[in-house]
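Recall that a protein's primary structure is simply its ordered list of amino acids. Everything else, from secondary elements to tertiary packing, is in principle encoded there. The following example makes that idea concrete.
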Amino acid sequence: MAKARTELAVLSALFIAATGVLVFVEVADDMNEADGQAFDHHVLALMRPYPDDPGRPWGPWWLKEAAADITALGGISVLGLFALIVIVFLLAQRKWLSAVLLPVGLAGGVALSEGLKAVFERERPPVAVQAVETINASFPSGHALLATVFYLTVAVMLTRAFPQKRLKALVLGVGVLLALLVGATRIYLGAHWASDVIAGWAVGAAWAMVLWLAAYAVERFQKRRHASLQDHETRERTQAATKV
């Protein structure tokens, strides 16, 4: 049963990674076409229903403040601080592989984000509609990408600490929710087109699954090596006993 669950988890991770890549390719292909641009402008118009004040997003004033707070959860400074806290905890628990995996994953996410932005060089929504400051290219959303990588990776790590299925599902659900909220606030605040965020979610999910698969492969290799060493020691003891 345990082996079947593990194989299902591996297949699920492979499926999510492949789907993420395919979604990104599709969105990247559509963003410069008429249909893709129409979709982005339609979503932006829904978020900016006040022609006399294009910088004012839909909803009450406090919703904008709340969105600004939530969007910071996908910023590199906040994620770096959270990552440092989690890494210290993992080191204290002697979870060496996870402690290495998390910063590698976050650094890889930054490299993916900046590299893809440099390749596509897409302009952001008009400055007049942006409710937050932006500094680089628009596609894909770095906040959505990094939040997806970080919160999904941490959520998967935490599922190992809970034997109950409902707690595992709760932890994963919280990780997904945080990633979705960060991306949604980027659209709401006018920092990104909707397709930027969808692409960021797709790449982030794919990268998070690649990290999990890499960790699984390393753990499996270590278990096989440990089992091989045990078998070798057992054979040596048996041979020694036979000689005696």
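The radius of gyration is 22 Å. Residues 23 and 115 are 18 Å apart (CA to CA).
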